[in-house]
Amino acid sequence: MQMVMPEPQIFVERTLALIKPDVVDKEEEIEDLILRSGFMIVQKRKLHLSPEQCSNFYADQYGKVFFPNLTAYMSSGPLVAMVLARHCAVSYWQELLGPSNSIRARRTHPHSLRAIYGTDELRNALHGSLSISSAEREIRFMFPEVILEPVPAGQRARDYLNLYVKPTLLAGLTALCKEKPADPMTWLADWLLEHNPNKPRLQHKITQEKRQ
Q: Which CDD domains does the record cross-reference, listed alphabetically (predicted)?
C-alpha cells in the first residue's frame, strides 16, 4: 500500500527587532549584520515613542524598579522598528542579540550584538521578542496595519473588523450614496481597492527611509 506523504513545508517565523535610540546612528551597520545572518527585513519604520507609548509597550515590566528609567530611555529619541523573518526567527534573533545585560554579554557572548553595541543592563542597544506570542503582540503594536498569519479568529477577528474593515466599508458606502453611480457594485469594488488601508507600500517605505 503506497502512502502519500505531505509536501515538505518551511515555516517562517516573524519577530520584532528594535534599534534603540542611543544606537540609531548605527542603523545601516546593524541592518547589514541582520541581513548577513539570514534574516529578511519585511517591514521597517523609524518612530519616536512617547513615555506613555513606551509604558504600554513594556506593560509586562510595569512595577519593576527599572521601569521608569526604561521608559525614559526608550522615549529619549527616535528608534527603528523592524519585522524580521526567517525560520525560527525568535530564537535566532535572541541568540544574535545575546544576554540582555550588555556588560555580561561582553563576558559570555563577546560577538553578540548587545556586547558590541550595548552599554549596560538598561542601555543594551537592541530589543527582540521573547516568544512567538510576544512577537505577534509587539509587531501589532509597532505596525498596527499589518495582517499576521494565521488570520485571527474569534474576538481578535472581531477587533480587527471593528478597527480596520468597518470604518473603511462605512466610508466607501457613504461615498457611494453621494456619488450614485450607474453600476454601484463595480464602483464600490474599485473604491475599496483604491482606499484599502493595507495596500502594500513596503518597498517604497523602506527605500524612502534609507534615503533619509
A: DD_NDKH5-like, NDPk5
Model pLDDT for residues 112-134, shown as the tens digit of each residue: 999 999 999 899 999 999 999 89
Single-letter residue type at 211: R
Better-predicted residue by pLDDT, 192 or 155: 192
Catalytic residue selected from 48, 87, 111, 127: 127
- The per-residue pLDDT of the chain, averaged, comes to 84
Catalytic, 204? Answer no
120 three-class SS: coil
180: alpha, beta or left, given left = phi > 0 and alpha = psi -120 to 50?
Answer: left
Which residue has cell 510576544?
134
Highest mean pLDDT (candidates 6-10, 142-146, 173-177): 173-177
- The C-alpha cell 548587545 sits at 114
Domains of the chain: residue spans and CATH: 14-142 (3.30.70.141), 154-195 (1.20.890)
pTM: 0.66
Q: Could you tell me the strand order of the sheet in which 79-86 lies?
A: 40-47, 79-86, 13-19, 126-128
Inter-axis angle of helices 184-194 and 166-179, nearest 10: 130
